[in-house]
Amino acid sequence: MSNFELLSEQGLRLDGRRPHELRCIKCKLGVFEQPDGSAYLEQGNTKVLAAVYGPHQAQSNKLDLNEVVINCQYSMATFSTAERKNRPRGDRKSQEITLYLRQALRAAIKTELYPRSQIDVYVEVLQADGANYAVALNAATLALVDAGICLKEYVVACTASLSKNNIPLTDVSHVEEMSGGPTLTVASLPTSNKIAFMEMSQRFHLDNLPAVMEQALNGCREIQAIMEKEVRKHLMQMGSAGDWSNIAK
Amino acid sequence: MTTNVNIRLAIDRVNMGLLAQNQTRAPRLYTPGEVVTGQFGFMKGHGTYVEGEDIKASVAGVMEQVNKLISIKPLKSRYVGEIGDVVVARITEVQQRRWKVDTNSRLDSVLLLSSVNLPGGELRRRGVEDEQMMRKYLQEGDLISAEVQNIFDEGTLSLYTRSLKYGKLSQGVLVKVFPSLVKRRKTHFHNLTCGASIILGNNGFIWISPTVNNEADGGDGGYAQNLNEVIPRADREVIARLRNCILALAHCKMMLYDTSILYAYEESMKYEVHELLQQEAIFDVAFLTQHRLRLQEE
């Protein structure tokens, strides 16, 4: 297991957080004019842009008569990590995350409403500092909400880890990921308490799983509340500028 | 030729949020997954779904209730067509007896050969010759104005141009905005007093063109594209200014209709056309327009 203690004697983590604390989250909707929906999300130093196009007519070779085709693309900017590296779009890690993104988004989107259509989700990591998948998914969710696409509810992801003395830690940063602790990533639909996706980077004792998972789910709920607040703020700004005159009284 | 490039830091951005300070009229907002009401006695409409006992919202927006039917309308989405809407659209494909048209809606729309006025204006059966001539009338990339005639089951829109006011568009500028920013009105064709015509498509495509003389245009059924005619510089400047004004209003999420566009145009006169691309000018024009619209309403 970890060769480095993640939690100090005072109960603080490497970046000074307490075990249950999230990193600082900032988000913004509607950052682009061209796509149908877009969002920017910053969780600690992990910064992600997401853009959604659609639903639009699906390409004829992908077309599905019963439900929508979700097309994801996850990519990392050249300058996103400490080591500058040109990543071609198809590298293994990105492809894997792309698949996981699609799986989680499919659980949230009401796919049966858009037959013959396609939704494109493009996520770009500008700065990678741990929990990339979770932040990418949260940004994609915000972009979908901005695009006015029907969702069952927000799909939110959060990570959790385990310190040496079996204390679960929320929202893992890059340093913590690297120092060898196990990372559990959970994507959930927090209101209905469903899990859309779950991944473990390393083994830990089964007895600890419920505690770590609960920690991650708590993180999801907190993130959802923050996202919800931002969505309302965004709606309020959009509607108020036009004095809500497009709303039938 | 030299141009001035204006580059600035993100921190110096103009805060467009200042336009949204008056929030007194704000209705109740719903977000995905939020319970709207109990299921008993109500029917679910667009933007909602039923889970257990409750009707829940599936989009972020405001509630619209018609008797017992409850629907949630998102503030921003793809174009959702309604019969009778005026749209500006682009031909993407020529097929047998119909054109595929891009209207910014969820699925491609169709324009049937039988729902266009053939050049010459005569009404007759469409024969094989007409089918072979289709690309002569409208080819890929052409812009048209049309009206929504019908909505098929899966949501495809069927358009028609069998009226002299619809048809192929000639010289002008296309501006794309979010469909929800275009206000539904009785008429979407306007000859603005500033010297340009404007078609406000319900699908968020806006067409700005030099003022056309309606009497002269009647004979050809709207299929002539006079691309050799030179539009005078003054007219082009008016069009460019209108385009920038519309984009400014859209950037600030203000509603687009004849009055708001005209007000924005008048308020923009103190700027050069190219200055209207700068953030301060955009904000100033939008702010003054909003002020005038509010005064007018009171």
UniProtKB/TrEMBL annotation, chain A:
<dbReference type="GO" id="GO:0016075">
    <property type="term" value="P:rRNA catabolic process"/>
</dbReference>
<dbReference type="GO" id="GO:0000177">
    <property type="term" value="C:cytoplasmic exosome (RNase complex)"/>
</dbReference>
<dbReference type="InterPro" id="IPR036345">
    <property type="entry name" value="ExoRNase_PH_dom2_sf"/>
</dbReference>
<feature type="domain" description="Exoribonuclease phosphorolytic">
    <location>
        <begin position="21"/>
        <end position="149"/>
    </location>
</feature>
<feature type="domain" description="Exoribonuclease phosphorolytic">
    <location>
        <begin position="154"/>
        <end position="218"/>
    </location>
</feature>
<dbReference type="GO" id="GO:0000176">
    <property type="term" value="C:nuclear exosome (RNase complex)"/>
</dbReference>
<dbReference type="GO" id="GO:0003723">
    <property type="term" value="F:RNA binding"/>
</dbReference>
<dbReference type="InterPro" id="IPR050080">
    <property type="entry name" value="RNase_PH"/>
</dbReference>
<comment type="similarity">
    <text>Belongs to the RNase PH family.</text>
</comment>
<dbReference type="GO" id="GO:0034475">
    <property type="term" value="P:U4 snRNA 3'-end processing"/>
</dbReference>
<dbReference type="GO" id="GO:0005730">
    <property type="term" value="C:nucleolus"/>
</dbReference>
<dbReference type="InterPro" id="IPR015847">
    <property type="entry name" value="ExoRNase_PH_dom2"/>
</dbReference>
<dbReference type="InterPro" id="IPR020568">
    <property type="entry name" value="Ribosomal_Su5_D2-typ_SF"/>
</dbReference>
<protein>
    <submittedName>
        <fullName>Exosome complex component RRP41</fullName>
    </submittedName>
</protein>
<dbReference type="GO" id="GO:0071028">
    <property type="term" value="P:nuclear mRNA surveillance"/>
</dbReference>
<dbReference type="GO" id="GO:0071051">
    <property type="term" value="P:poly(A)-dependent snoRNA 3'-end processing"/>
</dbReference>
<dbReference type="Pfam" id="PF01138">
    <property type="entry name" value="RNase_PH"/>
</dbReference>
<dbReference type="InterPro" id="IPR001247">
    <property type="entry name" value="ExoRNase_PH_dom1"/>
</dbReference>
<dbReference type="InterPro" id="IPR027408">
    <property type="entry name" value="PNPase/RNase_PH_dom_sf"/>
</dbReference>
<dbReference type="Pfam" id="PF03725">
    <property type="entry name" value="RNase_PH_C"/>
</dbReference>
UniProtKB/TrEMBL annotation, chain B:
<dbReference type="GO" id="GO:0071034">
    <property type="term" value="P:CUT catabolic process"/>
</dbReference>
<keyword id="KW-0539">Nucleus</keyword>
<dbReference type="Pfam" id="PF14382">
    <property type="entry name" value="ECR1_N"/>
</dbReference>
<dbReference type="GO" id="GO:0071051">
    <property type="term" value="P:poly(A)-dependent snoRNA 3'-end processing"/>
</dbReference>
<dbReference type="GO" id="GO:0003723">
    <property type="term" value="F:RNA binding"/>
</dbReference>
<protein>
    <submittedName>
        <fullName>Exosome complex component RRP4</fullName>
    </submittedName>
</protein>
<dbReference type="GO" id="GO:0000467">
    <property type="term" value="P:exonucleolytic trimming to generate mature 3'-end of 5.8S rRNA from tricistronic rRNA transcript (SSU-rRNA, 5.8S rRNA, LSU-rRNA)"/>
</dbReference>
<dbReference type="InterPro" id="IPR048565">
    <property type="entry name" value="S1_RRP4"/>
</dbReference>
<feature type="domain" description="K Homology">
    <location>
        <begin position="172"/>
        <end position="211"/>
    </location>
</feature>
<dbReference type="InterPro" id="IPR036612">
    <property type="entry name" value="KH_dom_type_1_sf"/>
</dbReference>
<keyword id="KW-0694">RNA-binding</keyword>
<dbReference type="GO" id="GO:0071035">
    <property type="term" value="P:nuclear polyadenylation-dependent rRNA catabolic process"/>
</dbReference>
<comment type="similarity">
    <text>Belongs to the RRP4 family.</text>
</comment>
<dbReference type="InterPro" id="IPR026699">
    <property type="entry name" value="Exosome_RNA_bind1/RRP40/RRP4"/>
</dbReference>
<dbReference type="Pfam" id="PF15985">
    <property type="entry name" value="KH_6"/>
</dbReference>
<dbReference type="InterPro" id="IPR025721">
    <property type="entry name" value="Exosome_cplx_N_dom"/>
</dbReference>
<dbReference type="GO" id="GO:0000176">
    <property type="term" value="C:nuclear exosome (RNase complex)"/>
</dbReference>
<dbReference type="Pfam" id="PF21266">
    <property type="entry name" value="S1_RRP4"/>
</dbReference>
<dbReference type="GO" id="GO:0034475">
    <property type="term" value="P:U4 snRNA 3'-end processing"/>
</dbReference>
<keyword id="KW-0271">Exosome</keyword>
<dbReference type="InterPro" id="IPR012340">
    <property type="entry name" value="NA-bd_OB-fold"/>
</dbReference>
<dbReference type="GO" id="GO:0010468">
    <property type="term" value="P:regulation of gene expression"/>
</dbReference>
